[in-house]
Amino acid sequence: MTQLTMAGKTVLITGATNGIGLETALELASQGASIALTARNRNKGEATLEQLRQINANGKHELYLGDLSLMADVRRIAQEFKSKHNTLDVLINNAGGTFDRRQTTSEGLEYTFALNHLSYFLLSHLLLDTLKATANARIINVSSSAQAYGKINWDDLQYARSYSGMGAYFQSKLMNVLFSNALARRLQGSSITVNALHPGVVNTGFGDNSASPLLRIVYSLGKRFAAISSSDGAKTSIYLASSADAAGISGKYFEKQKVKANNPIANDLEAQERLWALSLQIAGLNAK
Ligand SMILES: NC(=O)c1ccc[n+]([C@@H]2O[C@H](COP(=O)([O-])OP(=O)(O)OC[C@H]3O[C@@H](n4cnc5c(N)ncnc54)[C@H](OP(=O)(O)O)[C@@H]3O)[C@@H](O)[C@H]2O)c1
């Protein structure tokens, strides 16, 4: 892999206090990047900031605090970032999780939909002008191979009637690819690229929040026996952020640093546009 020089570049990464996001942030910092990380927990955020400073003392690393399931926090983080920066080289939408019981946020949104899809959608929109002001900016959406099993529950997007944690998760990860493809299409002719990826089955904090003891056992056994390490799980995110080989590639889905076919639903223009319009509306963005 031919690597770009990351010195002087800024990477904004969500959910960089654990797992794949943490490893991605540390590696990109070691390549010279300045990391702007988001965290919902101040102590974990400050501990990550300290690790980043030890790895790359010359980087201008920053911490943005907020709960990304809340669109008010996403808006505040974007505003705070834009008050300090006119450019952004790489945006990595990474924070996400799976929730076996239906929860709603204080803004009334179903948690999986809000965190896994709408935060990616809204943060990318709010930072788009900043990304456009940067040469060859990259947007990276951490999806999952679970997207292959997803379908969009159009009649009940937020699973109000009959909740399934797996269904909501698969749908949200399919939404990541639908959104990536729709945004890549809109950005054709610009120098910004947008791609989605599956990191692998990775031994992280994923699933640790499960309320069901049985599910916790399943996740823990799966992670112990079938999962790769967080540093291996970060490889495709790092590749898309800093590899010269990925330059100019947009609107693709990656696994193991290679383009792979995604769920055909994510290539359906009507589905892309339907989700786009609904997301604009739910996120309170004016149609553009
Ligand atoms: N692990 C896998 O096998 C796997 C497979 C496919 C896809 N993925 C995807 O990879 C991404 C990263 O997951 P991971 O495995 O690294 O999980 P993880 O270890 O649980 O890390 C998730 C990160 O997101 C943050 N986060 C969670 N909820 C948040 C919220 N409401 N607001 C702000 N930040 C929040 C976490 O913060 P805290 O540190 O405070 O918890 C943490 O930094 C997710 O999008 C997931 O869907 C993972």
Topology:
Blueprint: E1 10-13, H1 19-30, E2 34-39, H2 42-55, E3 62-65, H3 71-84, E4 90-93, H4 111-132, E5 138-142, H5 165-186, E6 193-198, H6 213-226, H7 230-233, H8 235-242, E7 252-255, E8 258-260, H9 269-283
Parallel strand pairs: 1-2, 1-4, 2-3, 4-5, 5-6, 6-7
Antiparallel strand pairs: 7-8
Helix pairs in contact: 1-2, 3-4, 4-5, 5-9
The chain binds NADP nicotinamide-adenine-dinucleotide phosphate.
The site of NADP nicotinamide-adenine-dinucleotide phosphate has 26 residues, from helix 1.
How would you describe this structure to a colleague?
With 288 residues, the chain is an alpha/beta fold. It has a single domain (10-283), classed as Rossmann fold, CATH 3.40.50. It has nine helices and eight strands. An eight-stranded mixed sheet has the order 3-2-1-4-5-6-7-8, with helices on both faces. Strand 4 (90-93), helix 4 (111-132) and strand 5 form a beta-alpha-beta unit. The longest helix has 22 residues, at 111-132. The radius of gyration is 18 Å and the shape is globular. The relative contact order is 0.15. The model has no long low-confidence stretch (mean pLDDT 95). Bound molecules: NADP nicotinamide-adenine-dinucleotide phosphate (NAP). NADP nicotinamide-adenine-dinucleotide phosphate (NAP) binds next to helix 1.
Question: What's a quick, concise take on this entry?
Answer:
This protein has nine helices and eight strands.
